[in-house]
Amino acid sequence: MDWEQIENIQVWCYVHAAVSFVTAFVLFVIWLVAFGTVRRRHDPARVAVTWLKLVFLFEIPGLILTGAAAFAESGSEFLSYQYGRGSAHSNKATYNTITLAYEVQLRTGSIGGLLRNIAGALLVVTFIEFANGLMFALTKQQTSSQKILRWIILASAFLLIVLSIAFAGLANTAIYNQWYAVLHFNARENRPSASDIDAIVSQGIAYSKLGGAHSVIGFIVSLGVIVYVSIVMHYYTTVSPSRIVAVNLLLAAITYFIRSIWFLVVAAVWTLPPAGTTPYLAPATSYGTNVFLDIILFAITLIILFAAGVRKKKGLWTTLQPWMGGVLPEMVGGRQPVVGQQPQQPQQPVVYYQYPPNGFSPQQQAQGGYPQYGYLPPQGQGGVYPQYGFPPQQHGQGGVYPPYGFPPQQQAQGANPLAQEIGGIARQEAPPGEAPPVATPTPERGLLEQNQNPQEMKA
Known about the structure:
Rhopdopsin 7-helix transmembrane proteins, elongated, disordered C terminus
């Protein structure tokens, strides 16, 4: 490799380090803001908020350490030795510089990669908890399928974390020993034996297989995440205004899925195949693609989830919060029925008749706009109330009045002249042996009542 290519790699190392540091700073600011704006507040639908903060907690130091590893790798002497353009044994100072750069690059890079892998495992749990929270907001209960899915994703995240720990452990043992074995072999001093070389090679193969297994399992988990989030989005196609939360969750799942595809391609093409059979990939291309498809896409995913959690009135809330001003969140109070469910029709209250109504047929009442009065039996405690679909308890509490402008108590006492006259006739005592008089509308009264505008009755 010529010096121009080495300088190109050096530039991309600087870019990798700069992007890592800047992204870590941006996420740190968002993480601080999240403590005041993205809170759970004992809402059962917002369990994902706690997991999201844990993702930030692991991703930020992981980015700082990987940035430090990229910066340590950018040294000219180290790169020239790594790509066969220099020797580590020209003098003592060069040897110390190269070994120090490798120590920093390996230690910080492996620990930073471990922290970022843990953040990725926690992120899949965050996705599932966000989706479960959206479903809880619709049904107000945790179904058995949601609980099973939660345990499955927790087990998957635990498996990914175990693989990440094993991967970092091999990096600090097998890969470390392998690098120094090559260094000493080239120096023709302290050369490892044949058995040592075989052990180092087998450990290197195990290291590659662990990395490939992590990428494959991560891809399968991300595929399950995007399927579940798509199902949740289907339920929210007619739910407003909370649909924006489901849309943000789907966008975040798509960005995370693209990142998982990139890792799967790397594992299938360059990591798992035997050495010497993989296609050539320019180091600059590898660095540049990894910066965008790994670091930037992961940060975009976290920012989208932050936006989904920080929204207030139109956000994922199912319980009344102090800042809501005593009004239930729109997600609960104004939600529409779930797709495939028919809205329930309100039940009309039962009206009992002891005496004839006001003398008009139901058709005349519907055409003339008059309320349908019903007289309860003498034992009933309620008086006369219009049939508007509200239960008598609400009228008795004064919560809903009919459009006449009078409370139900005034109507029962005779505030409506027509109802008072009819009710008075019905209450007259009949002489012994005779039937009580029945209110019969006169032609003049019927003509007056048919032409009367219901809006004028407010006066």
